[in-house]
Amino acid sequence: MKQLKLLFVGLLLVAANGLFAQITFTEGTFEEALAKAKAEKKNLFIDFYANWCGPCKVMAAQVFTIPPVGDYFNEHFINCKLDCDAAANKEVVKRYKVESLPTLMFLDSKGEVLRTLVGAVTPDVLMLEAQIATGEELPFEKLYEKSRKEKKNTELQQKLLIRAPHFIGTQNGYNQEKWKVRIDALFPEYLKTKKLENMINPTDFTILSLYHPEMEKQDGIFDFVVKNYDRYGEAVDKETVQNYLIGLYNTYILRLCSTGKTDYRQALGRIGGDLRAIYAGMPFGDLTAVEAVTLLADSYFNLFRHNLPLFFENMDKYFAGAGKALSINDYTQPIEDLYGIYQGNPPDNARPMLIQWLDRALTFDMTAQLRARLLMLLAENQQKTGDSAKAKQSLNQAFIVCAGIPEEAVKVQLQNMIREKLNDL
């Protein structure tokens, strides 16, 4: 009996922790929440939402429920949810000029705005804005000013580089361009001051991923990460490091292919050399990594030269060799790239093969939106090859699939497009 009582108490504690770890929103009106904030000498956090707002639901389910977020907000703020469609909140919505949802606002106890976020954000961004509102962190502009005075302070530089993408995304026009230039100049300063050998850690790897998205022929950063692949794998995550390096190198090879010269073939040699261990974990079916990437490189070399027979021939060799290791992206990416090369209008001799690839792509699991778009693309190619009956069938199927799209606006837009295409048949 005693053990059962202890178990019951333990379950209650677990339930209580689950309940109080999320943000606790106070009941009542805005005025009551503001009065409570003043009485408790706290700031006020407001979630302006509406029941029809999808991103609002994402915040409520996936961000406000995270324990560190809940703990911090419950300790430092009075938290209040305001339904923007409720008549009682109309005056508050107008006063604070809420035009988009969700709007997340931090106020002091007098009702003055401290910080505002518009749209769904990650937990890290929400926490940072909360810490700025409480004075624990500096706003981005002030952090930058401080770093200019302390030019050797790599901790400040690191913070700026991590925070910059979100901050720049909130700027417009001249301000946005100004901050892009400043941050682009800060990255090499940071590298020079801190040095790569001191950057084998998760935060600095994120910075490399953000600010070194392409490699050059002589690339010290790429070569350093390759040389220290195992150390980065232990400090960060091997798969993450692998994806970064392979992404850089594959993109570099494609860039060489796009020049129309055969220089890319020399670059392929590294895949069987110092990059062997990095490519070893990638699934290529019956193909070696060198064979797989060579086939893809030869395919794209010919695509850039508009030699479609050789493009399709090499791609089909890759598909046959990769077999069960193929993913939907293996089909959709070359289809997208072919459309891009031909500015959305592939030649007629490409369409029979596009129909085959689209049919194969549609056998994979995918979102309703992607399936609807692929069916619409299939219908276009079927129509262009003179098979209006199959095109109509594909469009009708796409219309039905749209019912599974959760975003109402996207669903309606796609269904209207499908109706127009059906009317044109």
Describe the structure.
The chain is mainly alpha-helical and 425 residues long. Among the domains are: 30-137, Glutaredoxin (3-Layer(aba) Sandwich), CATH 3.40.30; 138-194, no CATH class. 64% of the residues lie in helices and 6% in strands. It has helices at 2-20, 30-39, 54-63, 67-76, 90-95, 123-134, 140-149, 154-169, 173-194, 202-211, 220-227, 229-235, 238-258, 264-267, 276-279, 289-304, 308-322, 328-341, 351-361, 368-384, 388-401, 408-424, and strands at 43-49, 77-83, 103-107, 113-118. Strand 3 and strand 4 (113-118) form a beta hairpin. Helix 20 runs parallel beside helix 22. The radius of gyration is 27 Å and the shape is flat.
Widest sheet, order of strands: 2-1-3-4
> How many angstroms does the end-to-end distance come to?
75 Å
Specify Rg, calculated over alpha carbons.
Answer: 27 Å
Q: Estimate what percentage of residues fall within beta strands.
A: 5-15%
Helix content: 55-70%
Order of helices and strands: HHEHHEHEEHHHHHHHHHHHHHHHHH
Residue stretches low in confidence (pLDDT < 50, at least 5 long) are 1-19
CATH topology grouping of the domain at 30-137: Glutaredoxin
